[in-house]
Design brief:
heterodimer, A: 522 residues, mainly alpha, five-stranded antiparallel beta sheet, 61% helix, elongated, disordered N terminus, B: 457 residues, alpha+beta, Hypothetical protein af1432, 3 domains, 19 helices, 10 strands, globular, HD/PDEase_dom (chain B)
């Protein structure tokens, strides 16, 4: 029986030892959340648990570069930077004891702590703070040669009347020593304090630390406090806490001599914001946009690059608007980006110029009117319109790209430019109109309605009732769009025309008018 | 299984059962139900722990060798069990597998009597699965800081590290923060083993080392409150650090100001008030910025904010609700400052009076719940208090009685003629014929409590 027991123990530790070494190494290389680590971890934990079930505990001795069990080396690494044994030994840990009942979380935390603690950190303290119920460790403390304590002498008080002093204090503090004291804590008080403890464990104190430090700045504007606030700012940025980040910058505005954001204005940091800008919640994103508002003009070109990574259009729009706000009335910080080789950056720059509504930007945009990239031309249309130079838009109706033409028509519809009316009408009347796609044809009629005057209804009536000898089927589309345009206008004259049309014998006119009237009823 | 939690649960069940057997008949449903629960719980524990032992040693209760900490939750049940064991001179009770409901009900009901009737009834009761070991009267009285070498070592090592930290900042030298972190860890471990021993050492007041002693004492007392609140280790580390560093900003003030033995002018007072913001800067300088130091800096800044929102420094938003740690440090800071000789206050407040001051200002200056916890911890006559008894003898408080905050364990140091004697240690809760007349200044009788605390050197 005894032989069997010993054999079993030996077999188990032989199984555990190599698994233990491999698991530690995997934790060092991959971290404890990586699937590769878990491949090592699971058998290692299972092996340890089965050992503990049989033997109740496992005590490992730590030496400078090795970990031992019963005199047998189970881990060895002589490279100081890699050796877990060395780190444990350096921090005074001489023995680690695993106890039966060890759960997976505890063992995982243990491995995480010993493998991931930063070099300058004290592993003994880190392990101790983990408060693991089934893992004990023995630490040797540095012996102090002389603790230097001696019994202090009682200070001598001459001419003091102790009785007088005693009663003087009682009187001053209005204390009656006979008054009963009951320090019993009621259930309500217990609940109150316990709730506060739970909440205070969870509550991040960053906000309060910012208040504290900014209050201190009023009495003690030391570089240390300022530097600390900037350090907290970095912490906030890393944790994507832009609400508190903004608070710090806002508070430090009173110190114009301090450039709070200097550390973060560089291209690398700003471009790194792209790592989270698509994944953060809407609320955090809004905080981020507000925070971006604190950056100086010179950081705008970096942000223009960063925005290219933003996937959601609304988010990109919000950020561009923020950059326009940063620039105030100065287009200079944006102009440089118009020369960028990345067309997305150029597009962003053009759009921001539009948001700034500065007429002098038109001069810089002209070279993009015929840019080969249609996205750029679309951005130009939007920007020109926002600046208020609508007269420059009609030329885009002749653009080779349907997307650009549609954008131009929509812009003219939205911003109204009556001078374009005749040009639109001519275009509709041309035979080439039948060659374009329906969405574009619709935009023509929308544009016509938006920019038409008294002549409009007459022109639509003419198009609707036009007698066509050839290409009747092709002309159906013009009748339908004219009828729809009249329905859109929907005044007395328009209705009269549609009702007349609905009574016509021409089936195409009749159908177009009936459908338009139905549209009005709906 | 966590022994402390298990023990706490078992003790609260035992407490409920004993209380119920004193009120109801043994066959009452309440009693039967509780006894059933306790037997079921014990059967479950027997599988993991084997026999279950409740041991009383030096005013502490041990559950299978794990010391049960006095915490606000379960305080009443632990206090009750401690009192019962002490009253009946029981050193330990061991519950063995095979325990029956009827047996534990009978046992619980005999705990109501005095020590003689209990001893008699226990022998006659023929208990198979309950064993009791009695203690002798002499063994009952704990010796003053017995086995206290380790505690002394911890305290004085901590003092040395605190001194070197503060001195280093004062003289603008590099400070060893690693040693400082280890000190917090040692203090927490020592407090969990013997809180009264470590608290006893905070009463040693060294006039020349006020700044260092005060920082350490506030740290120790804050941690002791934190343990009573059952804070997690990580939280204790934050609290201990905050307590030790709360006044560290004083290194930026002149020693002339700090040690001035005349009342401060209003300008000097304003200058002294700056130590709170200065502490914040020093904490950052010493520890950098992490969650421990952020807690410490907020605590340092708020440790003169009162519970009712008054105090200094001013807060621009006037949202002056100090955080829990600041409220704890506020009490410990005030208590230690009151009870220590200062240049402007050569004769300090007596500890018993300082406790009463905390009570009189609870709800205004101090958090009333924390004042209660502090009183449970220190007693009404804290360790090293000098008391005059109605026998005319003078004694020193050597240990608290968790069950009786007003009846500590004392050592007689002056006879009724006020002559120095190496008198006995007596537990006032067991001495019905002796009562406390009032606290007195030890200086009046040339008593140096430190000699009794530290032993001959």
């Amino acid at each position: 029986m005894r032989f069997k027991y010993n054999f079993y123990v030996k077999g188990n530790i032989e199984e555990f030892a190599p698994l233990f070494t491999k698991t530690i190494k995997a934790a060092q290389i991959y971290g404890t959340s990586h699937p590769t680590f878990l491949n090592f971890y699971t058998p290692c934990y299972q092996s340890l648990v089965s050992f503990l079930r049989e033997n109740h505990n496992l005590t490992l001795q730590i030496e400078r570069f090795t970990i031992h069990y019963a005199g047998q080396i189970i881990y060895e690494e002589r490279e100081k930077d890699l050796s877990i044994a060395f780190r444990l030994f350096r921090d005074g840990i001489r023995e680690i004891n695993f106890i039966d009942g060890l759960n997976s979380d505890e063992f995982m935390i243990f491995l995480e702590t010993i493998s991931r603690s930063a070099k300058e950190q004290d592993i003994a303290l880190n392990l101790w703070e983990c408060d693991l119920s089934h893992i004990n460790f023995y630490v040797v403390e540095e012996e102090e040669e002389d603790l230097g304590y001696k019994i202090p002498e009682m200070p001598e008080f001459n001419n003091i009347d102790y009785e007088e002093r005693f009663y003087e204090i009682l009187k001053k503090e209005a204390i009656d020593l006979a008054e009963p004291v009951n320090p019993e804590i009621s259930a309500e008080e217990l609940k109150l304090i316990k709730t506060e403890i739970v909440e205070s464990e969870k509550r991040p104190l960053i906000g309060m630390a910012i208040n504290t430090l900014t209050n201190i700045l009023k009495t003690e504007p030391s570089p240390l406090v300022i530097e600390s606030l900037i350090e907290i700012l970095e912490l906030c940025i890393n944790k994507q806490d832009f609400n508190n980040a903004s608070r710090i910058v806002e508070r430090l505005k009173d110190y114009p001599e301090i450039n709070v954001l200097q550390r973060f204005e560089n291209e690398i940091t700003i471009i790194s914001f792209a790592n989270f800008v698509n994944t953060i919640s809407d609320r955090t994103f809004n905080d981020f946009v507000a925070f971006v508002g604190f950056f100086p003009k010179r950081s705008v070109p970096h942000f223009l690059k960063m925005i290219t990574a933003v996937a959601k259009r609304e988010r990109a729009d919000l950020l561009r608007a923020r950059l326009a706000y940063i620039c105030q009335d100065d287009i200079e910080p944006v102009l440089g980006s118009l020369k960028n080789s990345n067309l997305k950056v150029v597009t962003n720059a053009i759009l921001i110029l539009g948001m700034m509504k500065r007429k002098e930007a038109i001069l810089h945009l002209q070279e993009f009117f015929f840019h080969p990239e249609e996205d750029i031309r679309i951005a130009v249309i939007q920007t020109v319109a926002e600046i208020g130079e609508i007269k420059l838009i009609p030329q885009f109706i002749d653009d080779p790209s349907p997307r650009v033409r549609i954008k131009a028509l929509q812009t003219l519809t939205q911003h109204r430019y009556p001078r374009v009316y005749n040009k639109i009408l001519e275009k509709i009347k041309k035979s080439s109109f039948f060659e374009i796609e329906l969405p574009e044809q619709k935009e023509y009629f929308n544009c016509l309605v938006a920019n038409g005057d008294k002549k409009l209804i007459k022109d639509l009536e003419k198009m609707l009732f036009k007698w066509v000898l050839f290409g009747r089927k092709r002309y159906q589309i013009i009748r339908r769009l004219s009828a729809q345009a009249l329905a859109q206008i929907s005044d007395e004259d328009a209705l009269k025309i549609l009702k007349t049309g609905a009574r016509k014998r021409n089936r195409d006119i009749k159908t177009a008018c009936e459908q338009a009237l139905k549209l009005i009823q709906q | 299984m966590n022994s402390h939690k298990t023990g706490k649960q078992f003790i609260s069940l035992l407490y409920a059962l004993i209380k119920s057997t004193w009120v109801y008949e043994p066959n009452n449903d309440v009693v039967l139900n509780l006894a059933g629960k306790i037997v079921e719980y014990l059967n479950h524990l027997f599988d993991d722990f084997g026999p279950i032992e409740i041991l009383r040693y030096r005013d502490y209760i041990f559950f299978n060798k794990t010391r049960m900490r006095f915490e606000i939750e379960g305080y009443a049940s632990l206090q009750f069990i401690e009192e019962i064991l002490k009253k009946l001179r029981i050193k330990s009770i061991t519950f063995l597998p095979g325990l029956r409901i009827e047996e534990i009900i009978r046992f619980a009901s005999i705990l109501k009597g005095d020590k003689d009737s209990f001893a008699k009834e226990f022998i006659l009761g023929n208990y198979n699965a309950i064993q009791v070991e009695h203690s002798l009267d002499q063994e009952e009285i704990p010796e003053f800081l017995k086995d206290g070498e380790q505690i002394k070592k911890t305290y004085f090592k901590s003092l040395k590290v605190t001194r070197s930290l503060i001195h280093g900042l004062w003289t603008r030298q590099d400070v060893d923060t690693r040693k400082f972190r280890r000190v917090i860890y040692m203090l927490i471990d020592t407090l969990s083993q013997d809180e009264f021993g470590l608290i006893a050492l905070t009463t040693i007041k060294n006039f020349d080392e006020y700044t260092y002693n005060h920082s350490l004492n506030v740290g120790v007392l804050s941690l002791a409150i934190g343990q009573r609140l059952d804070l997690k280790k990580r939280e204790l580390v934050k609290l201990g650090t905050a307590g030790l560093l709360h006044d560290i900003g004083k290194v930026q003030l002149s020693k002339e100001l700090l040690y001035k033995n005349l009342p401060l002018t209003s300008e000097e007072w304003e200058l002294l008030k700056l130590h709170s913001p200065y502490s914040v800067a020093q904490i950052i300088k010493t520890r950098g910025l992490d969650d421990v130091s952020i807690n410490a800096l907020i605590t340092a800044y708020q440790h003169h904010w009162n519970y009712d929102g008054t105090g200094y420094p001013e807060d621009e938003k006037n949202q002056r609700r100090p955080i829990l740690f600041a409220r704890i440090v506020r009490i410990c800071d005030a208590y230690d400052a009151m009870t220590t000789s200062r240049p402007y206050q050569p004769l300090p407040y007596l500890p018993a009076i300082a406790i009463r001051v905390l009570w009189s200002k609870a709800g205004k200056f101090f958090d009333p719940i924390l004042v209660k916890i502090f009183t449970q911890l220190m007693g009404l006559y804290p360790i090293s208090s000098c008391l005059e008894l109605d026998t005319g003898e003078i004694c020193l408080v050597v240990r608290q009685n968790p069950a009786h905050i007003d009846l500590p364990i004392v050592k007689i140091v002056r006879d009724r003629n006020k002559k120095s004697i190496d008198g006995p240690i007596i537990d006032l809760s067991l001495e019905k014929n002796i009562s406390i007349l009032r606290p007195v200044y030890p200086q009046k009788y040339l008593i140096n409590p430190a000699i009794y605390l530290l032993g001959p050197q």
